Amino acid sequence: EEIMFCHWNRHVPLPNGWVDDRISEDANFVYKSVVFDVVREGGDKVVPVDGKWLRWSRESHPSRGDAEAVVRWARTGDDLDISELLSWAQSISKEGMLAEFALIDDEMDVTMYRLSIIQPQGSLVPATKDDYPLLGVEHLSRRFLRNDELNWINGVENQVTDLFGELNSRGLLMRPGFKYGCRWRVYSTPVDVDHAPWLLQMEQDSPRNWEGVSLSVRLAEGVHKGWVIALKRDDWNFLLIRRHLPGR
After folding, report:
1. Is the pLDDT of residue 14 over 70?
2. For the chain, which has fewer Cβ within 10 Å, the N-terminal or C-terminal residue?
3. Cα separations in angstroms, 156 against 24, 30, 149, 165
4. pTM for the full model?
5. Pick from 64, 47, 43: nearest CA to 2
6. Residue 100, pLDDT above cutoff 60
7. What's the CA gap between 72 and 100, in Å, rounded?
8. Mean pLDDT within 20-49
9. SS3 content of the chain, % helix, strand, coil (to 5)
10. Averaged pLDDT score across all residues of the chain
11. DSSP string of 28-44?
């Protein structure tokens, strides 16, 4: 991929048949080379190291500091493993770097994503089983509670109520996310004060392919929200996936 970058951007000639030989060895050679070129086109420096790409910003240099990000890539038809992405993002975060993922489609257009482990927090007083003034909706001079709210109040134990309780304890308020294709809109303030900063999907309902991720992230960002997947391991983990423009 570095040779192709030099060919495209430094006009370094290639021997006759060299590209054909590379394609015969690796069917993904051209896709990988295109991704590598796109990741670097913003002026950033990308260096392949031990099977992964390390990225430095245009203002930095490999000789003067640590990498800013680790970049992976895949084709849009490749398998999607959300659990593996969570583990990868966590490991990269522990190393003090950003986790970035480049997807290339069959037209060889590249979309970049940045994966972050977040700790969503709100300013609301958490509801209790006996006092929940912000839950439900007002209609016909009475309050109507949703099934997930009722189940949490009544002590039903399942993953949905467990996550509801976790988010509630963080001072957050959950509203249905049907209009946005997710489980909840998650508010950090009362509904009438500000918009929900996150659209949240549970792991069990998360997309099974990259097309689903693309749709969800684009929709969320189109309404100025972050798209988050909640995954329960020992504790709840929150994986934020958002688009990223190289060089920005």
Report:
1. no
2. C
3. 57, 53, 10, 11
4. 0.89
5. 47
6. yes
7. 6
8. 80
9. 30, 25, 40
10. 90
11. THHHHHHHHHHHHTTS-
